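Table S2 (text version). Query chain:
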Amino acid sequence: MLAELQISDFAIIDKLSVSFKPGLTVITGETGAGKSILVNAINLLLGSRGSSDLIRSGSPDAAVTALFHLPAGDSRDLVQTDLEKFGGPEVVAKRVLSTIGPNRVYINDQLATLAVLTEFCRGLVSISGQHEHQLFLEPEAHLETIDRFGGLEEQLEAYGLAFGELETLQSELRRLHRQAQERKQKEELRRFQLEEIENARIQEDEEIQLEEEYDRLRHVENLKQGGTVAHEILYSDSGAVLEAVSKCGKILADLSSLDATLKPLAQTLEDLRHQVEDISFSLRDYTQKIQADPGRLEWVEERLHTLKRLMQKYGDSTRAVLTHAHELRHELEATDSDEVEIRAKEKALEESRQKALKEALELSKSRRKSASRLSTAVEKVSASLDMPDCRFQVQFDLEESSGTSTTSLASGPGGEGIQVGEYVLYEKGLDRVAFLFSANPGEEVRPMAKIASGGELSRIVLALKQLIASKTAQETLIFDEVDSGIGGRTADKVGRSLKTLARQHQVVCITHLPQIACYGDHHYVVRKSAYKGRTITAMEELSGNNRLEEIARMLGGEKISAKTRAHAKELLEQAQKAAGRFEA
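Corresponding structure-token output:
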């Protein structure tokens, strides 16, 4: 229930605070006084677009704050929004529009997003005005009305899950087909590259070993000559290193008999002699073995050229080239497995299609039953709203309406459709519906959007609202322009209908008709005045004589006569009697 509404610096409203109570609250006032501004302010809490044009001239920002008393058991659990759980019986929602900074949203003094606020207020407040009257003419609104009246939310949710799975699988299959096509286009190139690498029979780090061998083969003469010279210096030349080390070793060996401390040095020289001898023999063998090999040099050079060409194309080393080859094999194996995965996904998709179709058909069956009951109920309620000859029908798909003509319906209930056999499934099901209406006997039913007058449409919307409200949880119902195009006896019946609706829901009605206003449990008047050169809108709760005067004003205009007051009193008394509240 909407318990309190505070508005500041919004349009022509300076400061306004009003408390709302259970039952039927009527709001009246002269045209242009600012009654509809209240609706615009509440619409901000429901997620409507916030514009700086709505901020009162000269003010930096505007704010709309609402205090809600939540129905029993409704905790508004929005943990998934990263806000704390909105527990407790009361919640404060606030929206601030600013000219000097970003617009802001608060719930229980916590910063929130507009999406969170919209979701939070869903089911708490419903506004029925001229805009919503037009929305009731849209096919999607027709489906929603049928679903809510029939209590089909669980079925719709089950279908929505099945349809979502179907959409996901279909998207996945499209992706797999694109992926397979892309891989197919690259397959020939990948096979060529892999064949080129495999034919080269590359060994890991082969280029390092070949580079060393290439340098050796290119410098055979230098290596042989240098090795020979080194051998001669160490071993065969007069005064060679080996000869000098041997002489030194013999001297120290002889002296060690005189001084034992020289013995280790003598032993070291003996070890060094053996090492020099080994090195010299190795150099001799190396120079004898190393030979020029032009054929081998040419092969190594060509092999290095092959490796470098592959490394330029596929990596900066043989290791990188072999890694690329491994990746190519993996891609080619994946290409081969694409067809297997596609077949498995197609099987899953077909199962999902049948599941979604089954849910859609069950939902459609329930909708047709709900639509039949809704038609009867709307005609019954419409009769109480002074449309005794009203006929209301729900047309599914392209069925013929009563008469010879057929009615063309909208393309589909929400988004792009998915073909399943002879059916097309949409986000909200497979049904396409239209509300057909006739207000007068002898006239065939036609699309409500084409033939309903403003007054008839207002009453049909009121009837639908009343029927839907009886199936849903308690919420605040706000009616603006529900009295459009009606008056007299019809207005009285609309007032009674609102009074009946207010037994289950908190109802707020903005009206110009005294026949409706007199049914209010609570009555507010909106007045516009000028103060210090500025327009100010104020709202006052009326009772007793003040209320009588306002009803008389609505009846008689600016000049109110005793007769008009008597008529106003009579209206109030009759309304109280009709509601069972008249006290003698």
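Notes on Table S2: The first helix runs from residue 35 to 45. The CA atoms of residues 411 and 432 lie 8 Å apart.
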